[in-house]
Design goal:
With 146 residues, the protein is an alpha+beta fold. The chain is 27% helix and 30% strand. Strands 3-1-2-4-5 form a 5-stranded mixed sheet. Strand 4 and strand 5 form a beta hairpin. The longest helix is centred in the middle third of the chain and has 16 residues. The protein is elongated, with a radius of gyration of 17 Å. It starts with a strand and ends in a 15-residue tail after the last strand.
Length: 146
């Protein structure tokens, strides 16, 4: 099986805060991350499928770049994540949740010939979250680019 990965970058800000908790509980759980802060994220979008015997390519990277630009980067780049993105209204803007959000934005828009294999998001050079929603309840929808 071939897996093709394209990297992207974006910058965004967030803060961790649970409105059901006191300030003391939030500070104990989230420390300095309870204050607004930002990251320069690195996103890896990995695809799998059959290599086209005529072109030698797994996917049209121009289409993939346009898809990621419209449905991920245009929304997340320079966003205050939990304020600007409605999906985060009741979720912490953690790397774990952001990677799931990105999967949900991309998976319904991938063609039948190419499947989303994995999303990996680096919050820092030493911290990343990875999501493979192909199993279980997160089976991606197979459709056309939209």
């Amino acid at each position: 099986m071939i897996i093709l990965t394209k990297k992207f970058k974006f910058s965004a800000a967030h803060r961790y805060w649970n409105h059901a908790w006191s300030e003391e509980e939030n500070l104990a759980a989230f420390g300095d991350d309870s204050r607004l802060h930002g990251h320069n994220y690195e996103l890896e979008v990995s695809l799998t499928g059959e290599v086209d015997p005529d072109t030698g390519f797994l996917a049209d990277l121009d289409l993939i770049k346009a898809l990621v630009q419209e449905h991920v980067l245009d929304l997340l780049d320079h966003a205050h994540i939990e304020v600007d993105i409605p999906w985060f209204a009741d979720r912490q803007p953690t790397t774990e949740n952001i990677v799931r959000y990105i999967w949900e934005q991309l998976s319904p828009r991938i063609t039948d010939d190419v499947r989303l294999a994995r999303i990996r998001l680096y919050e820092t050079p030493t911290i990343y979250a990875e999501f493979d929603g192909r199993a279980g309840e997160n089976q991606p929808h197979q459709g056309d680019f939209k």
